[in-house]
Design brief:
With 351 residues, the protein is an alpha/beta fold. It has two domains: 6-36 and 257-350, Aspartate Aminotransferase, domain 1; 48-255, Aspartate Aminotransferase, domain 2 (3-Layer(aba) Sandwich). It has helices at 6-10, 39-48, 63-73, 86-97, 113-121, 138-143, 164-173, 226-235, 243-253, 256-279, 301-310, 334-350; strands spanning 26-27, 80-83, 103-108, 124-129, 148-152, 177-181, 202-207, 220-223, 283-284, 291-295, 313-314, 326-330. The strands form three sheets. A seven-stranded mixed beta sheet has the order 2-8-7-6-5-3-4, sandwiched between helices. A three-stranded antiparallel beta sheet has the order 9-10-12. Strands 1-11 form a two-stranded parallel sheet. Strand 5 (148-152), helix 7 (164-173) and strand 6 form a beta-alpha-beta unit. Helix 3 (63-73) packs parallel to helix 9 and helix 4 (86-97) packs parallel to helix 5 (113-121). Bound molecules: pyridoxal-5'-phosphate. The site of pyridoxal-5'-phosphate has 13 residues, from helix 4.
């Protein structure tokens, strides 16, 4: 199509994990939470929502939601942005800081959206390779001369984390914006959110999609210095958060105990799943997220994915040179993981 921008013509769009709408699979492929969201949300949706309000526009600056987030995290309201999923937050960040002459630095292998965002923006990107232990070189990030460095921590699909000192070293030495994508931080041993008060080139992004069981309402948020947050408000769509999502998000933050309880349960099931897979000879990177990247010498990821799908378990396979030997498995309910381990054991024994 001759009217298209050249970069859009030539780019490959983001490919989300499969979202079958028929419900016949046990879904272990897109890191959703197996537990329902807080019962306070159910109560609200059934009994307390005045549908006539839908006639009005939602709050464009989500005052009440930001106030709630500020209380939960003890961070000033002026340091908080909220987007339509953290994917929108990442888009807004890219539009704030990068034009077509600039560079984005991104780790590899990691969340593939970062590369898609750089392609949409029409800028260059530099890949910073994780080594075989999922560590990376600070020097490489610093010398990239990039405007933004995106780092998912915990990383996907490996589930690994960098040492906190290493992230802080990058923030100190890198002459650009460091975006720490903490989509999975609630499942991890530490977060970088407290560093936001210390460094004005740091943005930490979070989401309600994983730990809070709310992927369906599309709410992500970010912590950063006031100057960055002010810029992000200029760039976002004027009504980027719908009324229902704002309200449901507030209720989720009112029930932090419920989220934390589910996270603790998932961490226990994560250990149970790791033990089961290791006893079959799988290699697994140490995960601080709600998923595992697992590989086995006698079967490649593609085949394992296909057989598991035939048997009713949907996992994620990435057709990529550093990832095709394995699969990414979301941690589900205990009984789902028991079923998954049983089927996987049969597959390995036959392979
Ligand atoms: C799931 C995920 C996101 C996106 O979260 P949404 O808030 O649902 O858009 C961002 N980053 C990483 C690394 C993720 O895995």
């Amino acid at each position: 199509m001759k009217y298209l921008r050249e970069n859009i013509q030539s780019m490959v769009g983001y490919v989300p994990g499969e979202q079958p709408q028929d419900g016949v699979y046990i879904k272990l492929n897109t890191n959703e939470n197996p537990y329902p969201p807080s019962p306070k949300i159910k109560e609200f949706l059934i009994n307390n929502f005045d549908y006539e309000k839908l006639r009005l526009y939602p709050d464009p600056v989500f005052f009440s939601l930001r106030k709630k987030i500020s209380e939960v995290y003890s961070i000033n309201k002026e340091n908080i942005f909220v987007g339509n999923g953290s994917d929108e937050v990442l888009t807004v960040i890219t539009r704030c800081f990068v034009d077509s002459n600039d560079i984005i630095a991104l780790p590899y292998p990691s969340y593939s959206l970062y590369e898609v965002l750089s392609a949409i923006q029409g800028c260059k990107n530099i890949k910073i390779n994780f080594d075989e232990n999922y560590d990376l070189s600070v020097e490489e990030v610093v010398s990239s001369k990039a405007k933004i460095f995106f780092i998912a921590n915990p990383n996907s699909p490996s589930g690994t984390v960098l040492k906190k000192e290493k992230i802080e070293e990058i923030i100190k030495k890198f002459d650009g914006i460091v975006v720490v994508d903490e989509a999975y931080a609630d499942f991890a041993d530490y977060s970088c959110s407290s560093l936001v008060n210390k460094y004005d080139n740091l943005i930490v992004t979070r989401t309600l999609s994983k730990s809070f069981s709310l992927a369906g309402i599309r709410i992500g948020y970010a912590f950063a210095s006031k100057k960055i947050i002010d810029a992000m408000f200029k760039v976002k769509d004027s009504y980027n958060l719908n009324m229902l999502s704002q309200k449901i998000a507030e209720l989720a933050f009112d029930d932090m105990f419920y989220m934390k309880k589910n996270v603790e349960e998932i961490k226990k099931i994560r250990t149970f799943t790791v033990d089961g897979l290791k006893s079959m000879g799988f290699k697994i990177f140490p995960s601080q997220a709600n998923f595992l990247f697992a590989s086995h010498d006698i079967i490649n990821g593609d085949l394992l994915y296909k057989i598991l799908k035939d048997r009713g378990f949907l996992v994620r396979y990435f057709d990529d040179k550093r990832l095709r030997h394995g699969i990414r498995i979301t941690i589900g309910k205990k009984e789902d993981m028991e079923g998954f381990l049983n089927v996987t054991r049969e597959i390995i024994n036959k392979a």
